[in-house]
Amino acid sequence: MQQGREEEEEEEDGGPERALEKSPFQLTAADVYDISSVVGRDLLQLSAGPQVPAALARLQFRIVRVLEMLEALVSESSLAEEQLRMERDSLRRELEVLRTEGSPGSTQQLSLGPDKVVIDLTDPNRPRFTLQELRDVLQERNQLKAQLLVVQEELQCYK
Questions:
Q1: Predicted local distance difference test score (pLDDT) of residue 60
Q2: In this model, does residue 125 exceed pLDDT 70?
C-alpha cells in the first residue's frame, strides 16, 4: 500500500527520472538525490534477475547522462573561473597604469570632476584651512577692526 502511494506521487511530479532530463544548471539538491535513487534502483535490478540486459542498458544511459551533466557543470565553472581571472588581470593592469600615472613627476592629471581638488601634501604652500574656516577668520578680523576703530574714537575723545 505504501509503495503504491509513493509510485503515484512519483508519477504526479514526473518521478525521479525527470531529474535526468533537466539541464545541469537547473538541478536542485532534491534532483541530485532523485538521480542517486534512480541509479541505485537500477543497480539493484542488475542483481535481481532476468531483466539484466534491459537494466544494464538503462543504467549505462543514466550514468552517461550524469557524466554529461557533471561535464557541463565543470566546463561552466571553468569558464566562469577563467572569466574572473581575466577580469582580475585586467583590473590589476588598470591599477598599475593608474599608479604609474599618479606617481610623483607625472605630467598627466587625473580627471576628478568639477568639485574635486588635488593637493600635494609635500607642498609647503598648500592650503591648510577649509573655505569655511577662512570665512570665519575674516569675519572675526572684521569685527576686531570695527572694535579697534571704536576704541580709537573713544581714545580721541579722551585726548
A1: 83
A2: yes
Other beta carbons within 10 angstroms of residue 151's beta carbon come to: 10
Q: Say how far apart CA 39 and CA 61 lie, in whole Å.
A: 10
Residues 149 and 79 in one domain: no
Q: How far apart are CA 13 and CA 15, in angstroms?
A: 6
Whole-prediction pTM: 0.41
Amino acid at residue number 14: G
CA–CA separation, 94 vs 150, rounded Å? Answer: 63
90 located within any domain: yes
The number of folded domains in the chain is: 2
Domain that holds residue 151: 129-158
Q: What is the mean pLDDT of residues 105-126?
A: 70
Q: Which three cell numbers stand for residue 140?
A: 572675526
